[in-house]
Amino acid sequence: MKEPKEISFTEFFREDVFAEDVPVQEENLVLLKQEEEIPLLDETVPAPEPESRKYWKALRNYFMTGTKTSESLTANVAPVLLAPYLRGNTFETDYPVFYNQHTDDLILLREVLSSTFDEVLKKDEAKILHQNLPRLELLIRNELKEEMITYAFADCINNAFQHLKKLDVHGEEGKIFREQADKLLQALLKLEGRLIGFSVYTPFHLLNLQLKVHYKAVEKFLAQVKKQQAALEGLLLLQQANEPNTPGTTRSEFDFAQGMIAFEKMNDMMPATASQGLSPARLQRMKECVRQLAAVQQYFSDYQVRVYVSKELSIQFNLNQLLLNAKVEEVSGASILVTETCKQALTAFVSMMAAMQMAALEIKNAYNEELHDAYFASFGRMHLSDDEMQSFPLFILIETADELMHAALNDFTSMLAASLPIKILAVNKLNGKPEIPNHLASDKILMKQELAAIVVAQRAVNIYQGAADTPIGLSKSINEGILSASPMVWNILFPDFSQADSKQQYIRLNTAIESRFFPRLKYSQDAGELFGSRFDISANPQVHAHFPAYPLEIKSAGKKETAEFSISVADYLAIQKKHTEQLEIIPAAYRTDDLMVFSKYLDQPQQELVGKIPFIWMLDDHNHLQQAAIPFTWLALCKERIDFWQFIQELGGVNSYHVKRAIEQSRAAWEKEKQNALDAMASVHAEELENIRKEEAGKAMDRLVNVLLDLDNQVYVPSIKKDILEKTEKSSSEGKKEIVTEPVKEEESLEVSAEVWVETFRCTSCNDCTNKLPSVFKYNADKQAYVHDATKGTFAQIVSIAENCPAKCIHPGLPHNPNESGAEELIKRAAALN
Amino acid sequence: MFGLKPDICSIPMPETYFGVDDYAKSTARWCPGCGGHSILSSVQKVCKDKQYPPEKTVFVSGIGCSSRFPHYMGTYGFHGLHGRAFPVACGVKFRRPDLNVFVVTGDGDCCSIGAGHWLHAIRYNMKMVVLLFDNGIYGLTKKQTSPTSNLGTVSNTHPRGSVLPPINPIQTTLGVANVSFVAQTTDWHPAHLYATIRKAVDHPGLAFIRVVQRCPIYMKDLYADVASNPDSLIMLSHEDGIQLDPAITKTFKNVLEHNPGDIHKAREYAEIKDSIPVGLFYQNTENANYDDYGAHNLGISATEKAQAINELLDNYMN
């Protein structure tokens, strides 16, 4: 016999009762995970006075010179709000966007999925599928690879649905889920188009897609030209046919139609003017028009949008491959060339349009030589409407913003001043920007020339400043720019190409815009007559503030609290490693009230800032909040950016100095007026009061005198007014009135159903009917009975089951076979249950 | 979009979805017309709604017709000793807080032999759902008087009618310290039954539901009239109470507004005799849960515990 193994007391407990594999509740797991991610603010023990003083002296030196103190912490830090995302957390973006190739619309993938779902399915009926729409979006996103720019929508969703359908959904629900998924897939497959992902090429890609809009306008224009030409030629032919010396011309022209056209009759039908013969001047004009119209068609016969770009940029962005809808010309000094070419094209276009207008008049025979000769003699660009200008050939210049603002500045400004309808795409690259000088030497001017400011000063040039982080907005602005008759500048920020990861690129791009380093801006002279109405800065977050601020939960002294953190220009700078190294991370022991958070520092008046050092909140690898002091060079750069932000805020009508002053002035005037009115009222009131007092005092004195002299026996009794008494009587009698309402009669009309039916929602799932007559009664997905096929059972069986139903929710109705034996008897029994 | 926001698509989602069939096992062997069928299908529906993984769900029962319940669920189950469903369930919950625990008990099992455990389980207030199948009779053993049988019930044990007034399970539960959730419903109103269980599973403590149940064999006459007469039910209605579809609410002729935070009113309404009040009598989500004080919930590891015991024992060695 085997001896039992001896187990020590401790082992017994360890092995059995206290085993460590107790799973924690899933809800708790989520909580634990969140708690880890909440930034912690350490409690501090202040350093002794002498040490602290020494450190602060070094810190002030750092602020002025940028030389870090010896005690600066060397932690790996990132701006608080951005840290989780910089370290790999996924975040929401507008990408991928879906481009519908039939409607040319750009829609967020999320919206495509949800709107298509709403079209074909109901949320309540397809709960699981609806719940999994985010998963579907994620699966589609997983199909997109980094190196490509666009993706075939059908391929992506087919693959994504294959994965989705693998989801483990059991039972009847599983079958329904897969059917619904198929239905959604079929509906999505009907949408033809491509998905566009985020990359450095996206703005060019959107430009290429929007060029189609221009081609459509040109096509419409050409159709009109052809129509006019045909009409004019028709008139000329008839004229020739009518001339006596060339009797056979018309006949010969329409030779093929011999026998079908009666030329003699045709002459009678011709317009009177034509049959009477055209004047030589008119004939000349018409011939000239026809020639011009033919020239237009010739001009547009192999028309392509011209894109002028420097060779360097073209190669960098591979524009030959990207801008397939345009003809890319690689030239240096493109500004001058494009101006010249555009000028020539405009002159030609103006004469074409003159011919068009003339032709239109001629066809209607409305050309008045006295009036129109002078009009056409002085015909110019000013006579063309915006609609007519839409078919003007498109000239696009693509150039880096640096080049435009420095080497080519003169050409650029003269191009803008010429008011030619040229469209310019300025490329702002974030690579290595901004450069922060180590010292703020006197000869280094930080004030930046702003492209947007130069363009806005031209007044007649539209501008859109933004980036590809909002593809819908960008695409819309490109569309508007192409269709507008005004010159347009798209000042577009491009991400840092040196970052391999597109997520990192997106974060930098988005932060540059949010932090007011490169704010979104739109100026469109087409938007309104008044200058202010043409500005739009509403696409920026929290436009009233210097910097946008967001609440964040932090943990301080063991307690959770919500603090507000802003995304400032300094935070934007601090994303880059090379900049972070310039920050002084202050040891917790030296934290004092003299440290002032940067966004607050900027708002303070100068006298409040004496002895203060600005800092920004950073988060280290261990999720602890750190205060990082910034040097003076950063402060100067940030101030410069804020200056520009305030400039466009003013233009956009936000925080306007003049408006504030006007409000203050009108308020002061109003308050003064109010005070005057109050004073006047008070004096009138005081006067009246005084008069009454005097009057009453006089009366009282009289009465007193009369009483004293015993001349008046009357005693003063205040009388209750009669009408008041009447009122109270009336109201009390009203209260006594009884509310009589007529009983509502409910007429119930019961109709007997011809067939057996079940009140499914009352079924208690007792299995009685489904066991006894399984072919007649079945359960639905909620395991409640319904009538599957009433003809599969006899009426006798159905009545018997209905009688036994514990919920009494089966109503037998009338027999489906009236010849069933004992039907009458059964109908009587059934009547009690119907 | 302003600012970087967490991506909604990256929130983890379940990989498996369970259907009603996942919670069903074998054919329920209750008599045709038994209220148990209705409760079973409602519980299965709630499990499906909550997508409880069957392997993470336990039904614990005692003895009686009701206690056959775990056999019909496709989850884990424990068909225990008479009256001992509560201590077993508390043990399961204490040891495995990750499991969804249900207690299925009957009027005999809970209110008679298991009454002691009943009171303490209410007081422990561990997160679980208790379903009291109250048909007012011992059915499994062929009709004997139970503690909830009405006065005068003729049964095998009281051929001339029972002589003691019945226990009121709602009133009794409301009288226990630390009570946190008390509701009443009936088996013949599936929509209300379902809504009540649905509310109970989200309660953070012990949710006690008395299901007024019909026994079609031995107590055929007890609720026959009541079940066919909608006037016999009074619905306790409140925004914090059991929420029903407005169309179904209309089927209740008598509606009484009752705030489930008011325990005094709850006790008053629990005494309504001439009709059956259904709905949420009382709920308090702030009460203490005894299992929070379990060693592993306090973060004490097995090694630490073993060490503490050793130290304690060492004291006796000297």
How does this structure look, described?
- The complex is a heterodimer of chains A (834) and B (318).
- Chain A is 49% helix and 13% strand.
- In chain A, β19, α27 (598-601) and β20 (613-619) form a beta-alpha-beta unit.
- In chain A, the strands form 6 sheets. Chain A has an 8-stranded mixed beta sheet, with helices on both faces.
- Chain A is an alpha/beta fold.
- Chain A contains 33 helices and 25 strands.
- The model of chain A is unreliable at 12-20, 28-34, 246-250, 270-275, 712-725 and 731-750 (pLDDT under 50).
- Chain B has 318 residues and is α/β, with parallel strands linked by helices.
- Helices cover 30% and strands 19% of the residues of chain B.
- In chain B, the strands form 2 sheets. A 9-stranded mixed beta sheet of chain B has the order 3-2-4-5-9-8-12-10-11, sandwiched between helices. In chain B, strands 6-7 form a two-stranded antiparallel ribbon.
- In chain B, α1 (35-50) crosses α6 (190-201), α2 (85-95) runs parallel beside α4 and α3 (107-113) crosses α4.
- Chain B is globular.
- At the A-B interface, α1, α7, β6, α9 and α24 of A face β1, α1 and α10 of B.
- β6 (168-169) of chain A pairs parallel with β1 of chain B, so a sheet runs across the interface.
